[in-house]
Design goal:
The protein has nine helices and 16 strands. The strands form three sheets. Strands 3, 5, 6, 7, 8, 15 and 16 form a seven-stranded mixed beta sheet that branches. Strand 13, helix 7 and strand 14 form a beta-alpha-beta unit.
Length: about 325
């Protein structure tokens, strides 16, 4: 049976992606086949498809690091035909054909039964972005983050991870400072629960190895100087969850925040999050982290056929929230 897929090739001109039809037998191997209903565009997909980042370990490959859909066949008794499931990370769309397609085939160890409270569509509004925001908060709370330690700064605020982080933190009782370079998103960020929206100049992070403690913690999507600066301001025993590199993958720091204030820099890696923890975070999302205004986080919904221009829009910072992809 033919499948429509966004397939990425590498040739002497570099990375090329094309929407094409392929046969099901050509898909990467796996013991569960899923008819994909929805996927979403993540920063990593945009880096990979445009060739701006080295994401793929094999070519050709169908892009898309997450998807939700309906089980078509399975040799694993845990997953029945017709059941709704999701897959995110684990190598999907990096070393195994991914979710920008009508169909994926994956090892059953990667498959998650749809959590109560979520549908294929709402699960992919969250997608890897929402999952990663929830995973970051989970890690911070496990390391004793509490609202009493002070406000949490969310950087790259109007992106997918940032939007969900703001909503989740706010609904859990944290004061949230959204850091955004886009003034036009202030109302949107406040509607998600941000108490304050600042730009990097207004945040004024200073340059001394230690500055006044102003924040309980941070969820950082941008890296670089902002991450360096935030570390200098975190309150005693607070945490920064390091998620992204939207600005820069380098940062500079002293060990003073760690050794004099007990501050922790927590790594958050959605790709290789252990499955037990992945399931528990997804279940928590379905149970108590769904915003009432979830649809406002969808900047647009596109059909697989219309996905082409979306990758540059995301990298050029022309969007907010999530771009949902209808693959059915
Ligand atoms: N560790 C993991 O497992 C994991 C999982 C998912 C995502 N990520 C990473 O997390 C980051 C955010 O992902 P996302 O899906 O939320 O991406 P996104 O939707 O594109 O959001 C990124 C946001 O960062 C800000 N930004 C973009 N370019 C910037 C620049 N040059 N300087 C400063 N800020 C900039 C923008 O926010 P404003 O316009 O509001 O400033 C933008 O909306 C990415 O680096 C991504 O690779 C990591």
């Amino acid at each position: 049976m033919s499948i429509l897929a966004l397939r990425v090739h590498r040739d002497d001109k570099g990375i090329q992606s094309k929407l094409l039809t392929m046969e099901e037998q050509q898909l990467s191997p796996g013991n569960v086949t899923i008819a994909v209903e929805y996927s979403g565009i993540n920063f990593k997909d945009a880096l990979g498809v445009t060739g701006k980042g080295k994401i793929y370990s094999q070519f050709p490959i169908n892009a898309g690091i997450d998807c939700a859909g309906i089980v078509e066949s399975s040799t694993d008794p845990r997953f029945r035909i017709g059941e709704h499931v999701l897959v995110n990370g684990c190598g999907l769309g990096e070393n195994q054909d991914g979710g920008f397609a009508n169909k994926v085939r994956v090892p059953s160890e990667w498959v998650i039964s749809m959590p109560e409270g979520l549908t294929c569509r709402t699960a992919m509004i969250f997608g890897t972005a929402g999952f990663t925001a929830a995973l970051a908060i989970d890690r911070m709370e496990q390391n004793d983050q509490t609202p009493a330690k002070g406000p949490i700064v969310v950087t790259g605020a109007s992106g997918g991870v940032g939007s969900f982080a703001i909503h989740m933190l706010s609904s859990l009782g944290y004061e949230v400072i959204a850091l955004s370079g886009r003034e036009e998103h202030i109302d949107y960020l406040k509607s998600l629960g941000a108490n304050e929206v600042l730009n990097p100049e207004q945040l004024a992070l200073g340059s001394k190895p230690l500055e006044a403690t102003r924040f309980g913690g941070a969820i950082d999507n941008v890296g670089g100087e902002i991450l360096s600066g935030l570390l200098r301001h975190i309150n005693l025993w607070g945490n920064i969850a390091s998620i992204g590199i939207a600005a820069d993958h380098n940062y500079s720091a002293t060990v003073f925040p760690q050794i004099l204030r007990g501050v922790s820099l927590l790594g958050v890696s959605s790709t290789n999050c252990p499955m037990e923890r992945r399931r528990s975070v997804w279940n928590r999302i379905g149970k108590d982290l769904i915003p009432e205004n979830l649809e406002t986080i969808v900047s647009k919904e596109v059909k697989l056929q219309d996905i082409g221009p979306c990758f540059n829009e995301l990298l050029d910072r022309e969007h907010r929230g999530r771009i949902l992809v209808n693959c059915s």
